[in-house]
Amino acid sequence: MTFGYAPHGLRQDFQNQIRQIQKEIGFEYVRFHGIFSDELMLYNETPSGEVYYNFNHIDSLFDSLLSYGLKPFLELGFMPSQLASTDKTIFW
Predict the structure, then answer these.
(1) How far is it, in rounded angstroms, from Cα 15 to Cα 30?
(2) Are 36 and 78 in contact (CB under 8 A)?
(3) What's the angle, vertex CA 30, arms to CA 29 and CA 36, rounded to 5?
(4) What is the pLDDT of residues 5-47, one digit of tens each?
(5) Secondary-structure breakdown of the chain: helix, strand, coil percentages, each rounded to the nearest 5
(6) What pLDDT sits at residue 80?
(7) 4: Cβ–Cβ under 8 A, 6 or more apart, which residues?
(8) Number of domain units in the chain
């Protein structure tokens, strides 16, 4: 199953839908993109410019999917904007 954009998987209404679909139909894998998107706040910098990574939102997403019996199939397409060499993309 594919659900689209990773940050959407953190919304409660979305999780309710995934849970219901999994209960009624059942899937083994779920695919989505944007696991490193800015909305999941993986890449961060302190005011002094020191880089730190925060996996809390990604962990929460994976934990919820695993609790529904789904295995994440990762698409590594987008990256944090602060690491990108350009804001040009062919996907939007």
Answers:
(1) 12
(2) yes
(3) 130
(4) 999 999 999 999 999 999 999 999 999 998 998 999 999 999 9
(5) 35, 20, 45
(6) 82
(7) 32, 33
(8) 1
Report the pLDDT value the prediction gives residue 61, as an integer from 0 to 100.
Answer: 96
- Domain presence at residue 82: no
Residue ranges making up the domain that contains 28: 2-74
Can you give the pLDDT at residue 91?
A: 61
- Is residue 16 a part of any domain in this protein? yes
Tokens of 61: 């997403």
90 lies in some domain? no
Helix residue ranges per DSSP H, 25-87: 56-67
Q: Is 29 inside a domain boundary?
A: yes
What pLDDT does residue 82 have?
83
Residues 37, 17: Cα–Cα separation, whole Å: 22
The three-class DSSP label of residue 61 is helix
